[in-house]
Give the backbone structure.
Amino acid sequence: MCGIIGYVGKASAAPILVEGLRRLEYRGYDSSGIAVSNGSSSIETRKKSGRLVNLKTLLSTEPAVGNCGISHTRWATHGEPSDANAHPHLDQSGRLALVHNGVIENYQIIKGRLLKQGHVFQSQTDTEVLAHLMGRSYDASTETDPQKRLVKAVRESLKQVTGTYGVAVMHADVPGFLVGARLGSPLVVGLGKGENFLASDVSAIVSHTTNAIYLQDRDLVYITEDDFTVENFDGDESAYEVSQVEFTAEAAEKGDYPHYMLKEIFEQPTSIQNAFRGRLIDDQASAILGGLGLTPRELRDIERIVLCGCGTASHAAMVGEYMIEHLARIPTEVEIASEFRYRNPPLDKNTLAFVISQSGETIDTLAAMREGQRKGHRVLGIVNSVASTIARESDGGSYLHSGPEIGVAATKSFTSQVTVLALLALLLGRMRHLSVDYGQRLLKEIRELPAKVEKILEQTDYIREIALKYIDAPGMLFLGRQFNYPTALEGALKMKEISYIFASGHAAAELKHGVIALVSESVPSVFIMPRDSVYDKNVSTLEEVKARKGPVIAITTEGSTDLERIADDVIYIPEVTECLSPILAVIPLQLLSYHFAVARGCDVDKPRNLAKSVTVE
Ligand code: AGP
């Protein structure tokens, strides 16, 4: 996915556009650029491959002056990261500039037509083709009003393309005027005082305004410094709602932390609290999730549950599967969203589907939701980003209330997703066989989670020492059983995505079925083994690794000092009921991967090849 900002107002656009890109760099950071109109009927563009600092350096020697502009930070889809492929892209005349988040699937056909008409392209991107299409439509138009002419050109061009887009467009003939449109990629209008904004994510503009319009698919908007109009692709006025952004600019900043990822790891006592705040019902020894929009009868009639997600969200879903089946005895299965959308699984009318997504924009998860809905199923969302596409299009659901998660590696969203799934399992269980006593015990334990997480976070320096001890490891194994098999998968994903070493997660008993061939003195095995129903089995597996000289890092419950005899390193977590243990056990894994990656000089907030949310296929 990419980051887009547009600004029109009285201030100099370039500093606002660049500052907005800094806040959006987590969305993609292969290259960046800006285009500014200075009112003298020309557009100045500046763009550079690599990190944002390269663009800032260019602007310091070649400033772009004007109070209307657009900017972009890129995660490459078509064409390698390069100056030429960086956005904004210009049309043939050089008077129309465009930034785009998404994929134009039929760009090659359109490009072929334009080449025959003599168009010359400077890049390999699909976006430049769209810019030329709009420019050609603008130049051929008989409309005399340049604002209407640009709006018509954008609308007509978008009707010719297939794919996904969030775009911001400007033209030298109409300084102080921007056009935006979206289909499949988010776009937000920020309403300021004497200035207005376009952005792919509110975090880019929240320091300027908290009044936001989250555009819907097929919305087209045009803005000046003191006005805006929202239409649909047929040119009719489109309904919109002005929302208040629920977080402050500070929440989207690193504060005193060196990285967003570390800040978000340390926010988990609060974010977990936010996930269950107002949702625990003591007198019923149960939980409430108001956003589900299901009656008690409908909840009781559920006979099967499907949980869909990608990456970390799918790991949270797997923990949810164990929790729901353990507490509510409802058959539950997890589907990787990209598989679900093509697998055409049989779902009956008493199946309830959930999609889980931090960003609420992941294209595969969005497609899985739409596929379930297409077949008449109610699909609920467990989402962090308010007013995101999944949040808006799902048939109800629950927000995580974690606050913005900027680090590419998901951390607080995982523990909040698991917390919400625990509430769902408790709610469903207490409608079936779960006793009052067990329900009350779970409520107590859920309330105690934030303090227990705090206690684990105090070990960050100790965990950093362990990371340094294995800094040269070429790979790492993560092993867990039952509720902590998904935790092992999550620990492996954290490690590989920010430190770039090979790391894999396994159900611990699978070690004997091939995985143990990977055990060697240079490859540490991380055992997630709280003192639970399978603890002794994990001890046996740990012994098998040690018998082959494999180093072992064990994560276990305080008091299990017997492990110090056999494991090379032991990290203790507080006692907690088995089904909630992944919420605690994952914290040491987050810290281990963070410190390991930092020590290896990796950019933990912007790991190579990745972006925070995958909004393109
Ligand atoms: C996890 O650390 C990764 N950033 C990635 O696997 C992520 O969980 C996945 O892309 C899903 O994102 P979502 O929760 O925003 O849908």
